[in-house]
Structure formats: C-alpha cells, structure tokens
Specification:
alpha+beta, 191 residues, single chain, 16% strand, 3-stranded antiparallel β-sheet, 3-stranded mixed β-sheet
C-alpha cells in the first residue's frame, strides 16, 4: 500500500508539473507574441522617425536654398546698378581710366562670387523665346530674324543651380505683317 501511495503521489506531482509546464509554455508563447508585437511597433516607430528626420532635412535644405536665392537676387540688383554706374563713368570723357578699370575689376569679383555660389547668366540673344526663362516685354517686327527669336536683352536673367533665379527681360521678333490692301477705288476720279 505504501508503494501505491507513493506512485499516486508521483503521478499527482507529475500531473501538476505537466500542468505547470503547460502554463509556462502558454505564458512563454504569449510573451513571445507580445515581444514580437513590441518589436514590430519599434520598427514602425524607427521607420517613422527616419522619414520624419529626412523630411525635416529636406525642409531645412529648402529653406536654406530659398534664403540663399533671395540674398543672391539682392546681390544681382546691386550688380546691375554697379554695372550701369561703370558704363556711365566710362562714357564720361573726364573719367579716369584707371578708376574705371578698378571698378570693372570689382565687378569681375562680384561675378566670381556669384559664379561660386552657382549663379550663371541666361544666354538670351539669338535663342528661341522660352517663357520659362524669358519675360517678353516687347515684340519687334523683324524679317531678318526667325519668328519668336530673342533679338535684344533688356535685363539679364540668371539661373541658380538649374532653377531660374531671375528671368531675362527680352525683346522678341515677330514677322512683320504687310498690309496688301489694294485700293480698288482707283476709278480715275481724282480729288
């Protein structure tokens, strides 16, 4: 009877150990599912944060580029005024040629500065009119030039890294329209 009691006790212990193992397995499986869910949430959060960081970097770069373009546009206006002043001084008969040459040297330095920042002039005269880089301020009747060709540049335009910083103000050729209206009232009766 003693060994039966021991066997029963061992069976009960084994049964309770099996139940405990089964509970631990279920708990482990639930913990694994929860850990996997948390890991996925972490991955999504990391991806969202990376996208947010990249977006902020793009916005910051865009703001910097916009502020740079605004400042360079102001420099271009000063450059235009400076160039007009040099041209006026050069036309003056009493102007000292050394001073004019010095002013032209400063203009070259301004142009070098603009070029180093990615500013380049738009070539206009002799090119077809392109509304993305040209502002037409006049149309000139010309038969010696193809229609829609830029014939004169009123104000030079500039590009900044392949974007229009300031469009060129230009004159554009149009074919002259000849009025071939014959006077059919020539019946010989004069005034």
């Amino acid at each position: 009877a003693g060994s039966e009691a021991q066997q029963q006790q061992q069976q009960q212990q084994q049964g309770s150990a099996r139940e405990e193992i089964e509970e631990l397995r279920k708990g482990l499986q639930a913990a694994r599912k929860e850990a996997e869910a948390n890991l996925n949430k972490l991955r999504y959060l990391m991806a969202d944060f990376d996208n947010y960081r990249k977006q902020m970097e793009r916005q910051a770069a865009s703001k910097i580029e916009s502020a740079k373009a605004e400042l360079l546009l102001k420099f271009l206006n000063v450059r235009d005024d400076y160039q007009r002043a040099i041209e006026t001084a050069a036309k003056d008969a009493g102007a000292n040629p050394v001073v004019v040459a010095g002013l032209e040297g400063i203009l070259c330095n301004i142009d070098s500065l603009l070029s180093s920042e990615g500013v380049r002039p738009i070539e206009s005269v002799g090119t077809p009119f392109d509304p993305s880089v040209h502002d037409a301020i006049a149309f000139v009747p010309r038969d010696d030039v193809a229609e829609n060709m830029v014939t004169a540049e009123i104000r030079r335009g500039y590009m900044l890294n392949d974007k229009v910083l300031r469009p060129s103000m230009v004159e554009v050729a149009r074919k002259s329209i000849k009025n071939n209206n014959n006077n059919n009232n020539d019946s010989g009766a004069g005034p």
